[in-house]
Amino acid sequence: MTSSIQDVFTHIENNQQLFVKRLAEWVSVRSVSSQPELRGEVLRMVQMTAQHIERLGGAVEMVDIGTETLADGSKLALPPVILAEIGRDPAKKTVCVYGHLDVQPAQLEDGWDSDPFTLTHRNGKLYGRGATDDKGPVLSWLNCIESFQAVSKALPVNVKLCLEGMEESGSIGLGELIAERGKSFFGNVDCVCISDSYWLGTQTPCLTFGLRGLCYFEIEVQCAQRDLHSGVYGGSVHEAMTDLTQILASLVDSSGRILVPGIYKSVKPLSEMEAQLCANVDFSPEEYRLEIGATTLQQHTKEDILNHRWHLPSLSIHGIEGAFSELGQKTVIPSRVVGKFSIRTVPNMEPDEVERQVKDYVAQTFSELRSPNRFRITMPVGSQAWVADSTHPNYTAGRNAMRRVFGVEPNLIRDGCSIPVTLDFARHTALNVLLLSLGACDDGAHSQNEKFNLSNYMNGMKVMASYLEELSLVLPKE
Protein backbone atom coordinates (compact mmCIF):
# COMPACT_ATOMS: atom_id res chain seq x y z
CA MET A 1 0.00 0.00 0.00
CA THR A 2 1.28 3.47 -0.88
CA SER A 3 2.10 5.56 2.16
CA SER A 4 0.42 8.91 2.81
CA ILE A 5 1.86 12.42 2.67
CA GLN A 6 1.76 12.34 6.48
CA ASP A 7 4.39 9.59 6.39
CA VAL A 8 6.60 11.92 4.35
CA PHE A 9 6.05 14.66 6.94
CA THR A 10 6.99 12.26 9.75
CA HIS A 11 10.19 11.25 7.97
CA ILE A 12 11.12 14.91 7.60
CA GLU A 13 10.50 15.54 11.31
CA ASN A 14 12.54 12.50 12.36
CA ASN A 15 15.56 13.52 10.27
CA GLN A 16 16.05 17.10 11.41
CA GLN A 17 19.54 16.42 12.71
CA LEU A 18 20.63 14.86 9.40
CA PHE A 19 19.16 17.70 7.33
CA VAL A 20 20.86 20.36 9.46
CA LYS A 21 24.17 18.50 9.13
CA ARG A 22 23.79 18.50 5.35
CA LEU A 23 23.11 22.21 5.29
CA ALA A 24 26.26 22.75 7.36
CA GLU A 25 28.25 20.82 4.74
CA TRP A 26 26.83 22.96 1.93
CA VAL A 27 27.37 26.25 3.78
CA SER A 28 31.02 25.32 4.40
CA VAL A 29 31.71 25.50 0.64
CA ARG A 30 32.80 29.06 -0.20
CA SER A 31 30.98 29.14 -3.53
CA VAL A 32 31.31 32.90 -4.12
CA SER A 33 30.83 33.31 -7.87
CA SER A 34 31.90 36.96 -8.00
CA GLN A 35 35.43 36.19 -6.82
CA PRO A 36 37.49 34.47 -9.57
CA GLU A 37 39.84 32.92 -7.02
CA LEU A 38 36.83 31.03 -5.54
CA ARG A 39 35.39 29.80 -8.84
CA GLY A 40 36.83 26.36 -8.04
CA GLU A 41 34.65 26.28 -4.91
CA VAL A 42 31.58 27.08 -7.02
CA LEU A 43 32.45 24.15 -9.27
CA ARG A 44 32.90 21.92 -6.22
CA MET A 45 29.46 22.95 -4.96
CA VAL A 46 27.87 22.16 -8.32
CA GLN A 47 29.59 18.76 -8.43
CA MET A 48 28.52 17.93 -4.85
CA THR A 49 24.92 18.74 -5.75
CA ALA A 50 25.02 16.67 -8.94
CA GLN A 51 26.31 13.68 -6.98
CA HIS A 52 23.55 14.14 -4.42
CA ILE A 53 20.92 14.11 -7.18
CA GLU A 54 22.44 10.97 -8.68
CA ARG A 55 22.21 9.24 -5.29
CA LEU A 56 18.48 9.97 -5.44
CA GLY A 57 18.29 8.17 -8.77
CA GLY A 58 18.20 11.32 -10.86
CA ALA A 59 19.56 11.57 -14.39
CA VAL A 60 22.04 14.46 -14.39
CA GLU A 61 23.47 16.47 -17.27
CA MET A 62 26.26 18.95 -16.51
CA VAL A 63 25.87 21.57 -19.24
CA ASP A 64 28.93 23.57 -20.28
CA ILE A 65 27.93 27.21 -20.79
CA GLY A 66 31.32 28.56 -21.83
CA THR A 67 33.60 31.18 -20.33
CA GLU A 68 33.44 34.60 -18.73
CA THR A 69 35.73 37.45 -19.79
CA LEU A 70 37.16 39.20 -16.72
CA ALA A 71 38.02 42.89 -16.40
CA ASP A 72 41.67 42.24 -17.28
CA GLY A 73 40.68 40.49 -20.50
CA SER A 74 41.41 36.98 -19.28
CA LYS A 75 38.83 34.22 -19.60
CA LEU A 76 37.49 32.04 -16.79
CA ALA A 77 35.41 28.90 -17.22
CA LEU A 78 31.82 29.24 -16.05
CA PRO A 79 30.50 26.53 -13.71
CA PRO A 80 28.23 24.09 -15.55
CA VAL A 81 24.46 24.24 -15.15
CA ILE A 82 22.79 21.14 -13.71
CA LEU A 83 19.84 19.88 -15.74
CA ALA A 84 18.44 16.84 -13.94
CA GLU A 85 15.36 14.63 -13.98
CA ILE A 86 13.86 12.59 -11.18
CA GLY A 87 10.96 10.58 -12.55
CA ARG A 88 9.97 10.17 -16.20
CA ASP A 89 6.45 8.76 -15.87
CA PRO A 90 4.57 9.90 -19.01
CA ALA A 91 1.29 9.59 -17.11
CA LYS A 92 2.38 12.27 -14.62
CA LYS A 93 2.73 16.03 -14.89
CA THR A 94 6.17 17.60 -14.63
CA VAL A 95 7.40 20.55 -12.59
CA CYS A 96 10.76 22.24 -13.08
CA VAL A 97 12.49 23.50 -9.94
CA TYR A 98 15.10 26.27 -10.26
CA GLY A 99 17.69 27.25 -7.68
CA HIS A 100 21.25 28.52 -7.37
CA LEU A 101 24.30 27.22 -5.53
CA ASP A 102 26.54 30.31 -5.45
CA VAL A 103 26.55 32.89 -2.67
CA GLN A 104 27.49 36.47 -1.93
CA PRO A 105 30.95 37.28 -0.49
CA ALA A 106 31.24 37.18 3.32
CA GLN A 107 33.94 37.63 5.93
CA LEU A 108 33.86 37.56 9.70
CA GLU A 109 35.35 41.07 9.63
CA ASP A 110 32.26 42.36 7.82
CA GLY A 111 30.39 42.26 11.13
CA TRP A 112 29.29 38.64 11.41
CA ASP A 113 28.84 37.21 14.90
CA SER A 114 30.24 33.85 13.75
CA ASP A 115 32.20 32.44 10.81
CA PRO A 116 29.88 32.93 7.78
CA PHE A 117 30.98 29.61 6.28
CA THR A 118 30.37 27.59 9.44
CA LEU A 119 26.68 26.92 10.05
CA THR A 120 25.88 28.12 13.56
CA HIS A 121 22.67 27.18 15.39
CA ARG A 122 21.50 29.89 17.80
CA ASN A 123 18.00 30.39 19.23
CA GLY A 124 16.24 28.35 16.58
CA LYS A 125 18.10 30.05 13.71
CA LEU A 126 20.71 28.60 11.36
CA TYR A 127 23.35 31.26 10.60
CA GLY A 128 25.64 31.01 7.60
CA ARG A 129 26.22 32.41 4.12
CA GLY A 130 23.81 30.74 1.73
CA ALA A 131 21.62 29.30 4.50
CA THR A 132 18.56 31.06 3.09
CA ASP A 133 19.95 32.32 -0.25
CA ASP A 134 19.76 29.78 -1.81
CA LYS A 135 21.45 26.64 -0.52
CA GLY A 136 18.87 25.98 2.20
CA PRO A 137 15.90 26.01 -0.20
CA VAL A 138 17.72 23.95 -2.87
CA LEU A 139 18.73 21.36 -0.30
CA SER A 140 15.15 21.36 1.00
CA TRP A 141 13.97 20.12 -2.39
CA LEU A 142 16.46 17.25 -2.36
CA ASN A 143 15.58 16.35 1.24
CA CYS A 144 11.89 16.44 0.28
CA ILE A 145 12.41 14.07 -2.66
CA GLU A 146 14.49 11.75 -0.49
CA SER A 147 11.70 11.68 2.09
CA PHE A 148 9.20 10.41 -0.49
CA GLN A 149 11.63 7.65 -1.42
CA ALA A 150 12.38 6.76 2.20
CA VAL A 151 8.71 5.94 2.91
CA SER A 152 8.25 4.18 -0.46
CA LYS A 153 5.85 6.81 -1.74
CA ALA A 154 6.14 7.62 -5.43
CA LEU A 155 6.65 11.23 -6.38
CA PRO A 156 3.22 12.62 -7.33
CA VAL A 157 4.76 14.44 -10.33
CA ASN A 158 7.99 14.22 -12.28
CA VAL A 159 10.60 16.71 -11.12
CA LYS A 160 13.17 18.44 -13.30
CA LEU A 161 15.92 20.51 -11.72
CA CYS A 162 17.70 23.51 -13.21
CA LEU A 163 20.49 24.56 -10.83
CA GLU A 164 23.20 27.11 -11.56
CA GLY A 165 26.30 28.55 -9.93
CA MET A 166 26.29 32.11 -11.27
CA GLU A 167 23.06 33.71 -10.05
CA GLU A 168 24.83 36.16 -7.76
CA SER A 169 26.90 37.26 -10.77
CA GLY A 170 24.09 37.83 -13.24
CA SER A 171 23.23 34.24 -14.28
CA ILE A 172 25.68 34.49 -17.19
CA GLY A 173 24.69 32.08 -19.96
CA LEU A 174 21.56 30.72 -18.28
CA GLY A 175 19.02 32.65 -20.35
CA GLU A 176 20.61 31.39 -23.55
CA LEU A 177 20.55 27.82 -22.22
CA ILE A 178 16.85 28.03 -21.33
CA ALA A 179 16.09 29.38 -24.80
CA GLU A 180 18.18 26.64 -26.43
CA ARG A 181 16.51 23.85 -24.43
CA GLY A 182 13.04 25.39 -24.46
CA LYS A 183 11.57 22.63 -26.63
CA SER A 184 13.78 19.76 -25.44
CA PHE A 185 14.58 19.61 -21.72
CA PHE A 186 11.80 22.09 -20.84
CA GLY A 187 9.47 20.91 -23.59
CA ASN A 188 7.32 18.59 -21.46
CA VAL A 189 7.38 20.74 -18.31
CA ASP A 190 3.97 21.96 -17.07
CA CYS A 191 5.06 24.70 -14.66
CA VAL A 192 8.08 26.15 -12.87
CA CYS A 193 8.73 26.63 -9.15
CA ILE A 194 11.46 28.84 -7.66
CA SER A 195 12.28 29.02 -3.95
CA ASP A 196 14.56 32.07 -3.88
CA SER A 197 12.32 34.69 -2.29
CA TYR A 198 11.08 35.77 1.13
CA TRP A 199 7.99 36.39 3.19
CA LEU A 200 6.75 39.91 3.72
CA GLY A 201 7.04 39.45 7.48
CA THR A 202 8.17 36.76 9.90
CA GLN A 203 4.93 34.89 10.65
CA THR A 204 2.68 34.64 7.58
CA PRO A 205 3.89 32.60 4.58
CA CYS A 206 3.86 34.16 1.12
CA LEU A 207 3.55 33.28 -2.54
CA THR A 208 5.16 35.80 -4.88
CA PHE A 209 3.70 36.45 -8.34
CA GLY A 210 5.56 39.59 -9.40
CA LEU A 211 9.03 41.15 -9.28
CA ARG A 212 10.42 44.52 -10.24
CA GLY A 213 13.00 44.75 -12.99
CA LEU A 214 16.46 46.28 -12.71
CA CYS A 215 18.32 48.92 -14.70
CA TYR A 216 21.83 49.37 -13.32
CA PHE A 217 23.91 52.41 -14.26
CA GLU A 218 27.54 53.49 -13.90
CA ILE A 219 28.68 57.11 -14.26
CA GLU A 220 32.42 57.60 -14.84
CA VAL A 221 34.10 60.98 -14.39
CA GLN A 222 37.85 61.50 -14.88
CA CYS A 223 39.75 64.71 -14.11
CA ALA A 224 43.43 63.67 -14.33
CA GLN A 225 45.76 60.86 -15.31
CA ARG A 226 46.66 60.05 -11.69
CA ASP A 227 45.43 60.73 -8.17
CA LEU A 228 46.43 64.17 -6.87
CA HIS A 229 47.48 65.61 -3.50
CA SER A 230 44.77 68.02 -2.34
CA GLY A 231 47.30 70.31 -0.70
CA VAL A 232 49.18 70.77 -3.95
CA TYR A 233 46.37 70.64 -6.51
CA GLY A 234 43.20 71.41 -4.53
CA GLY A 235 41.51 74.56 -5.79
CA SER A 236 43.20 74.45 -9.19
CA VAL A 237 41.50 71.46 -10.83
CA HIS A 238 37.90 70.53 -11.56
CA GLU A 239 37.59 67.55 -9.27
CA ALA A 240 35.90 64.42 -10.58
CA MET A 241 34.29 63.62 -7.22
CA THR A 242 32.64 67.05 -7.06
CA ASP A 243 31.09 66.55 -10.49
CA LEU A 244 29.94 63.04 -9.66
CA THR A 245 28.30 63.86 -6.33
CA GLN A 246 26.36 66.73 -7.92
CA ILE A 247 25.05 64.40 -10.61
CA LEU A 248 24.09 61.70 -8.09
CA ALA A 249 22.32 64.27 -5.94
CA SER A 250 20.21 65.31 -8.93
CA LEU A 251 18.70 61.85 -9.49
CA VAL A 252 16.24 61.54 -6.61
CA ASP A 253 14.72 63.85 -4.01
CA SER A 254 14.49 63.39 -0.23
CA SER A 255 11.02 61.82 -0.52
CA GLY A 256 12.35 59.11 -2.84
CA ARG A 257 10.79 60.50 -6.02
CA ILE A 258 12.94 59.94 -9.11
CA LEU A 259 13.74 63.25 -10.81
CA VAL A 260 14.49 61.86 -14.28
CA PRO A 261 11.86 63.41 -16.62
CA GLY A 262 9.36 60.92 -18.04
CA ILE A 263 10.40 58.03 -15.83
CA TYR A 264 6.86 57.57 -14.47
CA LYS A 265 5.20 57.89 -17.88
CA SER A 266 4.75 54.13 -18.41
CA VAL A 267 3.81 53.21 -14.83
CA LYS A 268 0.33 51.72 -14.66
CA PRO A 269 -2.07 53.17 -12.07
CA LEU A 270 -2.80 50.83 -9.19
CA SER A 271 -5.75 48.60 -10.09
CA GLU A 272 -8.59 47.86 -7.69
CA MET A 273 -7.47 44.22 -7.44
CA GLU A 274 -3.89 45.19 -6.58
CA ALA A 275 -5.09 47.78 -4.07
CA GLN A 276 -7.24 45.12 -2.42
CA LEU A 277 -4.28 42.73 -2.26
CA CYS A 278 -2.26 45.40 -0.48
CA ALA A 279 -5.10 45.99 1.96
CA ASN A 280 -5.47 42.28 2.73
CA VAL A 281 -1.79 41.52 3.24
CA ASP A 282 -0.56 40.85 6.78
CA PHE A 283 2.12 43.54 7.09
CA SER A 284 3.14 45.84 9.94
CA PRO A 285 4.91 49.10 9.01
CA GLU A 286 6.27 49.37 12.55
CA GLU A 287 7.68 45.83 12.53
CA TYR A 288 9.21 46.58 9.14
CA ARG A 289 10.80 49.78 10.47
CA LEU A 290 12.21 48.07 13.53
CA GLU A 291 13.52 45.11 11.51
CA ILE A 292 15.70 47.37 9.36
CA GLY A 293 16.62 49.70 12.24
CA ALA A 294 15.34 52.92 10.63
CA THR A 295 14.17 55.89 12.68
CA THR A 296 11.38 56.67 10.21
CA LEU A 297 10.19 55.56 6.75
CA GLN A 298 9.42 57.58 3.65
CA GLN A 299 5.83 56.32 3.74
CA HIS A 300 3.78 55.57 6.82
CA THR A 301 0.74 53.46 5.93
CA LYS A 302 0.80 49.81 4.95
CA GLU A 303 -0.78 50.55 1.59
CA ASP A 304 1.68 53.33 0.71
CA ILE A 305 4.74 51.31 1.73
CA LEU A 306 3.68 48.26 -0.28
CA ASN A 307 2.74 50.40 -3.27
CA HIS A 308 6.23 51.93 -3.31
CA ARG A 309 7.87 48.50 -2.92
CA TRP A 310 5.79 46.68 -5.52
CA HIS A 311 4.08 48.98 -7.99
CA LEU A 312 6.32 52.05 -8.32
CA PRO A 313 9.91 52.40 -9.54
CA SER A 314 12.63 53.35 -7.10
CA LEU A 315 16.18 54.71 -7.48
CA SER A 316 19.02 53.74 -5.15
CA ILE A 317 22.61 55.01 -5.11
CA HIS A 318 24.95 52.13 -4.32
CA GLY A 319 28.48 53.46 -4.13
CA ILE A 320 31.46 55.21 -5.67
CA GLU A 321 34.35 53.23 -7.10
CA GLY A 322 37.72 54.97 -6.88
CA ALA A 323 36.87 57.04 -3.81
CA PHE A 324 38.76 56.69 -0.54
CA SER A 325 36.66 54.58 1.81
CA GLU A 326 39.03 53.05 4.36
CA LEU A 327 39.53 54.03 8.00
CA GLY A 328 41.61 57.10 8.80
CA GLN A 329 42.39 60.17 6.74
CA LYS A 330 43.72 60.39 3.20
CA THR A 331 43.90 63.78 1.50
CA VAL A 332 43.72 62.53 -2.04
CA ILE A 333 41.86 63.88 -5.05
CA PRO A 334 40.80 60.76 -6.98
CA SER A 335 41.58 61.09 -10.65
CA ARG A 336 38.73 58.81 -11.74
CA VAL A 337 35.52 57.89 -9.94
CA VAL A 338 32.58 55.73 -10.96
CA GLY A 339 29.18 56.27 -9.35
CA LYS A 340 26.81 53.32 -9.30
CA PHE A 341 23.04 53.47 -9.01
CA SER A 342 20.02 51.46 -10.11
CA ILE A 343 16.36 51.88 -10.88
CA ARG A 344 13.96 49.12 -9.94
CA THR A 345 11.39 49.08 -12.71
CA VAL A 346 7.77 47.95 -12.82
CA PRO A 347 5.61 46.41 -15.58
CA ASN A 348 5.39 48.44 -18.82
CA MET A 349 8.76 50.12 -18.18
CA GLU A 350 11.09 49.02 -20.98
CA PRO A 351 14.85 48.97 -20.15
CA ASP A 352 15.75 50.61 -23.49
CA GLU A 353 13.44 53.54 -22.79
CA VAL A 354 14.66 53.88 -19.19
CA GLU A 355 18.24 53.86 -20.46
CA ARG A 356 17.48 56.66 -22.94
CA GLN A 357 15.68 58.77 -20.34
CA VAL A 358 18.43 58.42 -17.75
CA LYS A 359 21.31 58.98 -20.15
CA ASP A 360 19.68 62.10 -21.64
CA TYR A 361 19.01 63.55 -18.19
CA VAL A 362 22.47 62.80 -16.79
CA ALA A 363 24.20 64.16 -19.90
CA GLN A 364 22.17 67.36 -19.64
CA THR A 365 22.95 67.67 -15.92
CA PHE A 366 26.66 67.20 -16.57
CA SER A 367 26.66 69.80 -19.35
CA GLU A 368 25.12 72.33 -16.95
CA LEU A 369 28.13 71.88 -14.64
CA ARG A 370 30.33 73.31 -17.44
CA SER A 371 33.02 70.86 -16.39
CA PRO A 372 36.00 70.05 -18.66
CA ASN A 373 36.25 66.54 -17.21
CA ARG A 374 35.77 63.34 -19.20
CA PHE A 375 32.34 61.84 -18.61
CA ARG A 376 30.63 58.58 -19.55
CA ILE A 377 27.44 56.77 -18.47
CA THR A 378 26.63 53.14 -19.22
CA MET A 379 23.85 50.67 -18.33
CA PRO A 380 25.52 47.24 -17.95
CA VAL A 381 22.33 45.56 -16.70
CA GLY A 382 18.76 46.06 -17.89
CA SER A 383 15.95 43.61 -17.10
CA GLN A 384 12.19 43.90 -17.23
CA ALA A 385 9.71 43.45 -14.42
CA TRP A 386 7.84 40.15 -14.22
CA VAL A 387 4.23 39.36 -13.27
CA ALA A 388 2.66 35.89 -13.39
CA ASP A 389 -0.95 34.73 -13.58
CA SER A 390 -1.70 34.13 -9.91
CA THR A 391 -4.94 32.27 -10.78
CA HIS A 392 -2.99 29.48 -12.51
CA PRO A 393 -3.25 25.97 -10.95
CA ASN A 394 0.44 26.29 -10.04
CA TYR A 395 -0.56 28.98 -7.53
CA THR A 396 -3.56 26.98 -6.37
CA ALA A 397 -1.19 24.13 -5.51
CA GLY A 398 1.12 26.55 -3.68
CA ARG A 399 -1.71 28.09 -1.68
CA ASN A 400 -3.13 24.69 -0.72
CA ALA A 401 0.31 23.46 0.37
CA MET A 402 1.02 26.55 2.47
CA ARG A 403 -2.42 26.36 4.08
CA ARG A 404 -1.96 22.68 4.92
CA VAL A 405 1.43 23.10 6.59
CA PHE A 406 1.04 26.50 8.27
CA GLY A 407 -2.71 26.50 8.88
CA VAL A 408 -3.24 29.98 7.42
CA GLU A 409 -3.92 31.49 4.02
CA PRO A 410 -0.62 32.72 2.57
CA ASN A 411 -0.13 36.32 1.51
CA LEU A 412 -0.18 36.72 -2.26
CA ILE A 413 2.42 39.39 -2.96
CA ARG A 414 4.63 41.11 -5.46
CA ASP A 415 8.23 41.80 -4.50
CA GLY A 416 10.57 44.69 -5.07
CA CYS A 417 13.54 42.47 -5.94
CA SER A 418 14.62 41.18 -9.35
CA ILE A 419 15.24 37.56 -10.35
CA PRO A 420 16.00 37.67 -14.09
CA VAL A 421 15.58 33.90 -14.53
CA THR A 422 11.82 34.28 -13.96
CA LEU A 423 11.68 36.32 -17.16
CA ASP A 424 13.86 33.80 -18.97
CA PHE A 425 11.46 30.99 -18.11
CA ALA A 426 8.38 33.06 -18.93
CA ARG A 427 9.83 34.33 -22.22
CA HIS A 428 11.46 31.16 -23.55
CA THR A 429 9.06 28.49 -22.29
CA ALA A 430 5.73 30.35 -21.82
CA LEU A 431 5.31 28.43 -18.55
CA ASN A 432 3.71 29.72 -15.38
CA VAL A 433 6.34 30.48 -12.73
CA LEU A 434 5.60 30.34 -8.99
CA LEU A 435 7.87 31.82 -6.33
CA LEU A 436 7.31 29.49 -3.38
CA SER A 437 8.88 31.56 -0.62
CA LEU A 438 10.44 29.83 2.39
CA GLY A 439 12.60 32.52 4.02
CA ALA A 440 11.41 35.15 6.50
CA CYS A 441 11.83 38.87 5.82
CA ASP A 442 14.57 39.17 8.45
CA ASP A 443 16.79 36.39 7.05
CA GLY A 444 19.41 38.91 5.96
CA ALA A 445 20.21 37.49 2.53
CA HIS A 446 23.28 39.31 1.13
CA SER A 447 23.87 40.79 4.58
CA GLN A 448 25.78 40.02 7.76
CA ASN A 449 24.45 37.17 9.90
CA GLU A 450 22.36 35.64 7.12
CA LYS A 451 20.15 32.98 8.65
CA PHE A 452 17.40 30.47 7.93
CA ASN A 453 14.93 29.79 10.73
CA LEU A 454 15.06 26.10 11.63
CA SER A 455 11.26 26.02 11.59
CA ASN A 456 11.19 27.49 8.07
CA TYR A 457 13.76 24.93 6.90
CA MET A 458 11.82 21.97 8.28
CA ASN A 459 8.33 23.22 7.44
CA GLY A 460 9.57 24.27 4.02
CA MET A 461 10.29 20.64 3.14
CA LYS A 462 6.73 19.77 4.15
CA VAL A 463 5.38 22.59 1.98
CA MET A 464 7.37 21.27 -0.96
CA ALA A 465 6.08 17.73 -0.44
CA SER A 466 2.51 18.95 -0.17
CA TYR A 467 2.98 21.20 -3.21
CA LEU A 468 4.07 18.24 -5.35
CA GLU A 469 1.01 16.30 -4.28
CA GLU A 470 -1.30 19.28 -4.87
CA LEU A 471 0.15 19.76 -8.36
CA SER A 472 -0.86 16.24 -9.29
CA LEU A 473 -4.43 17.10 -8.28
CA VAL A 474 -4.91 20.57 -9.74
CA LEU A 475 -2.97 20.56 -13.02
CA PRO A 476 -5.39 19.91 -15.88
CA LYS A 477 -5.47 16.34 -17.19
CA GLU A 478 -4.72 15.52 -20.80
UniProtKB/TrEMBL annotation:
<feature type="binding site" description="in other chain">
    <location>
        <position position="196"/>
    </location>
    <ligand>
        <name>substrate</name>
    </ligand>
</feature>
<keyword id="KW-0479">Metal-binding</keyword>
<dbReference type="GO" id="GO:0005829">
    <property type="term" value="C:cytosol"/>
</dbReference>
<feature type="site" description="Important for catalytic activity">
    <location>
        <position position="229"/>
    </location>
</feature>
<feature type="binding site">
    <location>
        <position position="331"/>
    </location>
    <ligand>
        <name>substrate</name>
    </ligand>
</feature>
<feature type="binding site" description="in other chain">
    <location>
        <position position="418"/>
    </location>
    <ligand>
        <name>substrate</name>
    </ligand>
</feature>
<feature type="binding site">
    <location>
        <position position="229"/>
    </location>
    <ligand>
        <name>substrate</name>
    </ligand>
</feature>
<dbReference type="InterPro" id="IPR011650">
    <property type="entry name" value="Peptidase_M20_dimer"/>
</dbReference>
<dbReference type="Pfam" id="PF07687">
    <property type="entry name" value="M20_dimer"/>
</dbReference>
<keyword id="KW-0464">Manganese</keyword>
<dbReference type="InterPro" id="IPR001261">
    <property type="entry name" value="ArgE/DapE_CS"/>
</dbReference>
<keyword id="KW-0378">Hydrolase</keyword>
<feature type="binding site">
    <location>
        <position position="133"/>
    </location>
    <ligand>
        <name>Mn(2+) 1</name>
    </ligand>
</feature>
<feature type="active site" description="Proton acceptor">
    <location>
        <position position="167"/>
    </location>
</feature>
<dbReference type="GO" id="GO:0046872">
    <property type="term" value="F:metal ion binding"/>
</dbReference>
<dbReference type="InterPro" id="IPR051458">
    <property type="entry name" value="Cyt/Met_Dipeptidase"/>
</dbReference>
<keyword id="KW-0121">Carboxypeptidase</keyword>
<feature type="binding site">
    <location>
        <position position="100"/>
    </location>
    <ligand>
        <name>Mn(2+) 2</name>
    </ligand>
</feature>
<feature type="domain" description="Peptidase M20 dimerisation">
    <location>
        <begin position="210"/>
        <end position="366"/>
    </location>
</feature>
<feature type="binding site" description="in other chain">
    <location>
        <position position="344"/>
    </location>
    <ligand>
        <name>substrate</name>
    </ligand>
</feature>
<keyword id="KW-0645">Protease</keyword>
<keyword id="KW-0224">Dipeptidase</keyword>
<dbReference type="GO" id="GO:0004180">
    <property type="term" value="F:carboxypeptidase activity"/>
</dbReference>
<keyword id="KW-0482">Metalloprotease</keyword>
<feature type="binding site">
    <location>
        <position position="133"/>
    </location>
    <ligand>
        <name>Mn(2+) 2</name>
    </ligand>
</feature>
<dbReference type="GO" id="GO:0070573">
    <property type="term" value="F:metallodipeptidase activity"/>
</dbReference>
<feature type="binding site">
    <location>
        <position position="196"/>
    </location>
    <ligand>
        <name>Mn(2+) 2</name>
    </ligand>
</feature>
<dbReference type="InterPro" id="IPR017153">
    <property type="entry name" value="CNDP/DUG1"/>
</dbReference>
<feature type="binding site">
    <location>
        <position position="168"/>
    </location>
    <ligand>
        <name>Mn(2+) 1</name>
    </ligand>
</feature>
<protein>
    <submittedName>
        <fullName>Cytosolic nonspecific dipeptidase</fullName>
        <ecNumber>3.4.13.18</ecNumber>
    </submittedName>
</protein>
<dbReference type="Pfam" id="PF01546">
    <property type="entry name" value="Peptidase_M20"/>
</dbReference>
<dbReference type="GO" id="GO:0006508">
    <property type="term" value="P:proteolysis"/>
</dbReference>
<dbReference type="InterPro" id="IPR002933">
    <property type="entry name" value="Peptidase_M20"/>
</dbReference>
<feature type="active site">
    <location>
        <position position="102"/>
    </location>
</feature>
<feature type="binding site" description="in other chain">
    <location>
        <position position="446"/>
    </location>
    <ligand>
        <name>substrate</name>
    </ligand>
</feature>
<comment type="similarity">
    <text>Belongs to the peptidase M20A family.</text>
</comment>
<feature type="binding site">
    <location>
        <position position="446"/>
    </location>
    <ligand>
        <name>Mn(2+) 1</name>
    </ligand>
</feature>
